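Archive maintenance. Older records in this collection stored only the sequence; we are now back-filling the structure field for every entry so that each record is complete. The fields below show one back-filled record exactly as it appears after the update. Entries are processed alphabetically, and LacI family transcriptional regulator is next in the queue.

ARCHIVE ENTRY
Title: LacI family transcriptional regulator
Organism field: Victivallis vadensis
Length field: 340
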Amino acid sequence: MARHKKDINIRLVAEQAGVSVATVSRVVNNRTDVSETVRRKVSEVIERFNFAPTKSVERRVNIGIVVALDGPLINDYITQILDGVAGYSDGGNLDVTVVLYRVCPEAKTLLQTIRERRCDAVVIVPPEPVADQLGDLRDAEIPTMLINGGLTGPKMGYIGNESYSGAVKAMEYLIACGHRRIGFLCNSLVNSNDHTRRLQAYKDALARNGIAGDPAWIVPHHPTEQTADAGFDQCRSLLKHAPGVTAVFCTNDEMAMGAIKACWEAGLRVPDDISVIGFDGLPYGKYLHPALTTVRQPLTELGAGAVRYLDEFLKGQRTVLPEETLGTELVIRDSVTTVK
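Back-filled structure field:
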C-alpha cells in the first residue's frame, strides 16, 4: 500500500536504505563523510519516497561554480560568465559558491572537492581542463551544467554558443571585404568542441568560396600564461611564414589583442595593411585601437542560464537539464576593412 507523505520521515528512509538516521542526515546535508556507494543508496530511497526533509534538517541550496584553472589567471571570458551567475542569484533564496579548482597532479579530485564544499549542483567553466573527471560527476549523479561543453547524462546538461555559425559569420564578412588570404590563430583544441568548430568553420568557408587554403595560414596553439601572449606569438609566426595574409581570424578576443600588437610591431597598420577579427565579444574590445571587430557570444546569458536551470532542477520545476545552444552576433567595428 502506498504511504502517505506524512508517514515518510527520516527514520523510514534510514530503515529502507539500511543505514542510520545520522547517515541519512549527512546525505541530506551533503556532508563529505559518506561513501559514494552509500550516498547513492540513500538518494535512491529519498527519490523513491519523494522524501522532503523537515525544517530541522533542511538547508539552503548551494550551487557551486567550478572555475577550472590550468593556468594562473582568471580571464575576462570567465568574469563575464560570473557576472551572469551573480545577476541571477543576487537576492534569491540560493547560495552560490565559487570553487577555484586548479588542475595539477597534487590536487584533490573534482568530485571530492565538490563534496567538501557541500555543493548540491555545479556549473563548470571551462569544462576542458577537467574533461577526464566529468564522468565521475555523471556517475555520482551530481546535477551539472557545462558551459560550452558537450557531455550529457541523466543529471548533466550544457549551455553553449553557436561557435560554428558564429565563425562562419566572421569568415563570410572577411571574404565579403575582399580577403582571400586569411590566417587563423588556433586556441587549444584539446577537449574543446568550441575551438574545433571555429577552425572547421574557417576551413569550410574557404572551400565554399573556392579559396585554396595554405597550411601555413593555420597557426597551432602556443600555450602561454596569458592568452593575449599566445595571440602575439602566433601572429608573429603567421607573419613570418605567410607574409602575404591580408586578414587574421583569432579564436578569441584575447588572442586578437595580442595579434594586433604583433602586427604593429611588424610595421603593419591595422586595418589599413592587415585586418584582425576576434570571437567572444568581450567588453574591452570596443576600447582597443582600432576597436575590435568580433563575434559576440552571450557570456553573461550563459552564466545566468546555467545556474537558473540548476536552480529549477533542484526545486523540481524541471525534470531534465537542457542541452541548449545560444546564437552569436557579428559586431562590426574598426579592425577590419576592405582589401585595397
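Update note: The longest strand covers residues 62-69. Residues 193-208 form the longest helix (16 residues).
Entry marked complete.
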